[in-house]
Amino acid sequence: MQRWLDRLDKLFGDELRLELDENGQLLHLSLLTKRGAYRLCSATDPEATIRNHGGDKKDFAYNVSVLATVHFIREIQVDTGSRPDGDAIADVLEAQREHHGFCPDKLIYDKAAGWGKIVHQVDQVTDGQTQLGAYPVSPKRKPDTLAPEDFVLSADGFSLTCPNGRISSQKYRSGSADGHTFRYPAAQCLGCPFLKLCRGSQETPTTHKSVFISDYRAEWERLKACSQTEDFKQDMKLRPHVERIIAGLVLHNDARRARFRRIDKVAFQARICATAYNLKRWVSLLAARQLDKPPKKRRRCGAPKPVGAAADPSRGEVGLVTA
Questions:
Q1: What is the mean pLDDT of residues 18-45?
Q2: Contact 322/242 with Cβ under 8 angstroms?
Q3: Is 166 within 8 Å of 188 (Cβ atoms)?
Q4: pLDDT of residue 204
Q5: Is 90 exceeded by the pLDDT of residue 275?
Q6: I need a labelling partner for 107 at 20 to 30 A (CA). Which of 163, 167, 287, 308 fits?
Q7: Are the C-beta atoms of residues 194 and 146 closer than 8 Å to each other?
Q8: Alpha carbons within 13 A on the beta-carbon side of 218
Q9: Distances from the Cα of 300 to the Cαs of 92, 130, 233, 250, 288, in angstroms?
Q10: What is the pLDDT of residues 153-164, one digit of tens each?
Q11: Are 288 and 77 in contact (CB under 8 A)?
Q12: Helix (H), strand (E) at residue 318
């Protein structure tokens, strides 16, 4: 009963604006223009939520994350639909470590993992054993303007240097994000040649300039440096393999639609689908080995072999993740 009462409270908070008088009586009721996060949309399956694919494409669904090698699915996890893809990476890796006793040397992902916070989570869960490979997502910046990444943070994190070489040690903990806000007083910006780029105006500044620096800046810079290497370019060529695996799950192993309600039952269905896929792929590889011929090609252009992968195809060292 308490669980359903909590769901009703969330439903009211996410969907409606209630105006009450001093006695707690309802005066006015209206729908919110901006709905709450993880909003409930079903009385029979409240654990499923809206999954936003961008634009007008939205699904009422669960979000499934797949951790796989070139041939086999290592781990599969089901979350509510509104959970962002990148947030589930650490949980999937932790589950693999618990169930299989090891972590992949590399984890190849898309831009959903291109944040310093995700890199930090992967480092924490795997004790630094897994290198995350993804295209870094840069903070939004207006054209012809300076961004926080243009400012240099000191090694001890206590001071910030602007492109003009001026240093600020006035920093305050942000109340809305993981990081600090450095403040440059107006007097410190007088005569700066980058006023237009930094503040948007050439006029003499009269207010301070604030620059937000994330707690995960070092991890983001490491991810950015990794994305510019030749090994990273070769690793990203492996990502199409996971699309083939997803197609196999969806088209041939009944993973298109949830046949049950509640996240635990949907997760069981996903694991059974993944097990069926692995068994069929295993039989296919064994048959090819017995006939002494290479496995059937899945792509027109052959993908490179995973760097550092073991000889046994079931023990690959590179993780391919999709969600």
A1: 83
A2: yes
A3: yes
A4: 86
A5: yes
A6: 287
A7: yes
A8: 8
A9: 31, 30, 19, 21, 19
A10: 998 889 999 999
A11: no
A12: strand 318-322
- Identity at 135, one-letter amino acid code: Y
Asked if pLDDT for residue 212 goes beyond 60, the answer is yes
Q: Can you list the pairs that 176-180 forms with residues at least 24 positions away whose Cβ atoms lie under 8 Å? A: 177/212, 177/214, 178/117, 178/214, 178/215, 178/216, 179/212, 179/213, 179/214, 179/215, 179/216, 179/217, 180/212, 180/213, 180/215
Predicted TM-score (pTM) of the model is 0.79
81 Cβ neighbours under 8 A, 6+ residues apart: 48, 49, 50, 51, 59, 60, 61, 62, 63
Which H or E run includes 106?
Answer: strand 106-108
- Cα within 13 Å of Cα(245), Cβ side: 31
C-alpha distance from residue 226 to each of 61, 154, 234, 237, 294 (Å): 34, 21, 12, 15, 33
Specify the DSSP element, H or E, that contains 3.
helix 2-15
How large a percentage of the chain has pLDDT more than 90?
37
Neighbours of 196 (CB within 10 A): 14
